[in-house]
Amino acid sequence: MNRILLIDDDRELCALLRRSVEQEGLQATCCSTGREGLAALEKQPYQLVVLDVMMPGSDGFETLSRIRQCSRVPVLMLTAKDDSASKVRGLRAGADDYLTKPFVMDELLARIASLIRRYTRLGGGQTAPARLTFAGLTIDPDERSITGPNGTFVLPPKEFDLLFYCASNQGRILTKQQIYEAVWQEPYLYDDGNIMAIVSRLRKKLEENPASPRYLQTVKGIGYRFSREV
What we know:
Blueprint: E1 3-7, H1 11-23, E2 27-31, H2 34-43, E3 48-52, H3 60-68, E4 75-79, H4 84-92, E5 97-100, H5 105-119, E6 132-134, E7 137-140, E8 145-148, E9 151-154, H6 157-168, E10 174-175, H7 176-184, H8 193-206, E11 216-219, E12 223-226
Parallel strand pairs: 1-2, 1-3, 3-4, 4-5
Antiparallel strand pairs: 6-7, 7-8, 8-9, 10-12, 11-12
Helix pairs in contact: 2-3, 4-8, 6-7, 6-8
């Protein structure tokens, strides 16, 4: 059974979330502080973390940073702040999705199901995608890692999926809508902040000079392309 870690200092909301996800056949553990959440992650694996931004002590951004130091578990962030700066900050720190309070429970459950479905290895005889090798860069789907000019990095889920999708379509110009719907597996809502934040993080790991990318290139006004020249 898939397990979800809920980290939120609003105990009433956390209890509601726990009941809702358990009705979907998932196990849930509730923690009211970032420290408790990090301790829970050390004790057992989880398939998803739902993390509130505004908490006493270590806030959600600091907790996310510490999670990313040791785990690539998908993270869905919750916040009462309806501003793009907080959203971009969370995505740049390694969050995979973002939902603003108040939210509709059905939407939260749909996002949880999508993240778990995408990042949990389900077996069933599925064939693993092949490793991709380019000039100076290797993308390994088994390890969900890259090895390039800046070293080896194990990528968080959304970073790896976006890169692998673009690299698998080498030389093809991909619109932001195509990328969003392939990676997030949901309708494109003309919010490019998610994509831009992930591309920015990727370039820091991929490129010797992120300002002049060799691999993941911007096609102005359209989207991105993984270079056909590598």
